[in-house]
Amino acid sequence: MSRIVALDTADIRFPTSLSLDGSDAMNPDPDYSAAYAIIRTDAGDAGHAFVFTIGRGNDVQVAAIDALAGHLVGRELEPLLDDMGGTFRELIGDSQLRWLGPEKGVMHMAIGAVINTLWDIKAKRAGLPLWQLLAGMTPEEIVDLVDFRYLTNALTRQDALEILRSAHNGRAEREQQLLATGYPGYTTSPGWLGYSDEKLERLAREAMAEGFTQIKLKVGADLDDDIRRFRKAREVCGPDFPIAIDANQRWEVSEAIEWVRALAEFRPAWVEEPTSPDDVLGHAEIARGIAPIRVATGEHAQNRMIFKQLLQAHAIEVMQIDAVRVAGVNENIANLLLAAKFGVPVCPHAGGVGLCEAVQHLSMFDFVAVSGSREGRMIEYVDHLHEHFVTPTVIRGGSYMTPSTPGNGMEMKAGSIADYTWKGQHVFA
């Protein structure tokens, strides 16, 4: 048996606001940041994970992760890894910490960071990338990872078993397809709101040349600007190339319907986060009001219950999970099963700091073991900060190449952690 000897944390911030990378209508000056966690053992191994934030408040997220040390330090590791479903339920079930949510917000994301560090160790000890470790589990083992509390009026344990068992045949063939061709991606890199028209046009051309089959534009600050920018993107990409739009929660419900209708001539592939991520019925009203343009959301969905309601209300036609917004791998498996139950494609949120590296594992697991499909599914890609990761995402021909390195892909380089740990201002070694 090995024991956990430390839960180390770091407040890591990158000055992306200086170049307006990541800028949108709601977040004009993001400094992409990571509340970083490392679980260390007396066997000499370690698990790495993080929560993505955008600057101020990253210290609060670090403090939330630190608050979980008492649940972990000094404990034998193997029992935690052998029962990851039980470990998940134990952490989200701390009644005093749960009071801060319940099951949402800073504390819930901190639990996700800890859960993801444990999955990193488990995958590394198995000698497998996370997607392959998960895809190799039996349907019963996968279902044991999920907390079905609050879900059973939409997804029961038996429902989940049937989904997984129906996908079981063909797993090996899909795994070989994945290894050979990767997983489709789309890029948001051309569309940041702070970019000039010239930069938008140049990056859109480059995205098409690189093989991406969809781009995304940020919208929502000024309608005339959005019309001009969308028109320029259409001139570059042509009339049939998919271009999605993302309002980043900027609009009221009625405003969203009017704004998207004003952009309808440009045929948006979907509109993302048109209003508050908590407004399930508002999303449903928008979906009815702008059909056949699709509504997408989920990167700020707090937990599996919000996803359940979005699906039940027919409020979304594209579901966007995030690797670090909910409580880690276990809760995202629940989200993937919900999407499969309702027949809604999952196109994860990525970009940020290391989100591409993290969420690719969930989509690849979904293809092999849950939905069994890549049809209409793609992972967001943003060309930011990959150089800081030990195993950075690899994109070829607009697709994510399948990772083969053991672990969850979230481990940052030691030098990057040291250089970008927050010192009260941006100071670089």
UniProtKB/TrEMBL annotation:
InterPro entries: Enolase-like_C_sf, Enolase-like_N, Enolase_C-like, L-fuconate_dehydratase, Mandel_Rmase/mucon_lact_enz_CS, Mandelate_racemase_C, Mandelate_racemase_N_dom, RHMD-like. Coiled coil: none annotated. Keywords: Lyase, Magnesium, Metal-binding. GO terms for biological process: amino acid catabolic process; carbohydrate catabolic process. Transmembrane segments: none annotated. It is an enzyme of class 4 (lyase). Residues 197-293 form the Mandelate racemase/muconate lactonizing enzyme C-terminal domain. Signal peptide: none annotated. Its cofactor is Mg(2+). Its EC number is 4.2.1.68. GO terms for molecular function: L-fuconate dehydratase activity; magnesium ion binding. The keyword Magnesium applies. It catalyses: L-fuconate = 2-dehydro-3-deoxy-L-fuconate + H2O. It comes from the Bacteria. This is L-fuconate dehydratase. It comes from Microbacterium hydrocarbonoxydans. The lineage of its organism: Bacteria, Bacillati, Actinomycetota, Actinomycetes, Micrococcales.
